Amino acid sequence: MTTTPMNFNVNELVFNPEGLIPVVVQEANTKEVLMLAYMNEEAIQITLRDKVATYYSRSRKALWKKGETSGHIQHVLGLSYDCDSDALLLSVKQIGVACHTNHMSCFFNQVLDDQKVTQNRYVLEELYATIEERKNHPIEGSYTNYLFNKGIDKILKKVGEETAEVIIASKNHSIPEMTLEISDLVYHVMVLMVNEGITLPIIADELSKRRQLKAGK
Question: Residue 181, class by beta-carbon neighbours within 10 Å (0-12 exposed, 13-18 middle, 19+ buried)?
């Protein structure tokens, strides 16, 4: 059952001999399973208090706040535990990507998929995270870092150039050409977004507000 801090007693949970309990982390909107982690009692209390996911690292034997260094934090929207009280389900709003490999979910190694779930549905989130990673941890020879080093004027120039290329490709009615140029434009717009601190959730929230306004008319 879903619980809240008001009626939840951590003593109801069954921890393993190390004082830990496994946590399945799920994206609240898409229901995508993002990762599996562990919490001890302190991590649970901090997570409930701050509404930001905090886990216990078995390798470091210490608490760790998800996204503390990368910025890919998890805003906690819900916490449930299973029928045996020995596993947690955390419902979160993921900022950026969940996996350190820049995949949206840690479960990206496909073995069987009878539902034909596409592997690229989070490609924008993963692209944004990669660009953000380049900004925070530059790599020599990276084109993305070249743009960041040149600054806002160079980034804006590229956005303008790619916009013009999209227009030309559209006038030529060439789907392959349009696909390439639109992809280039999306990439450069994302570089601009990262440079200016505008995240994908900010854009999604704005579009959602517009949809709600339109629906209310």
Answer: buried
Which residues have a Cβ under 8 Å from the Cβ of 80 and sit 6 or more positions away? Answer: 1, 2, 3, 88, 89, 91
Is residue 146 over pLDDT 60? yes
Query: pLDDT band for position 8 (50/70/90)?
Result: confident
Cβ(106)–Cβ(34) below 8 Å: yes
Decide if 174 contacts 180 (C-beta within 8 A). no
CATH tag, 2-94: 3.10.20.810
DSSP 8-state assignment for residue 176: H
Residue-range domain boundaries for the chain: 2-94, 123-216
pTM of the model: 0.65
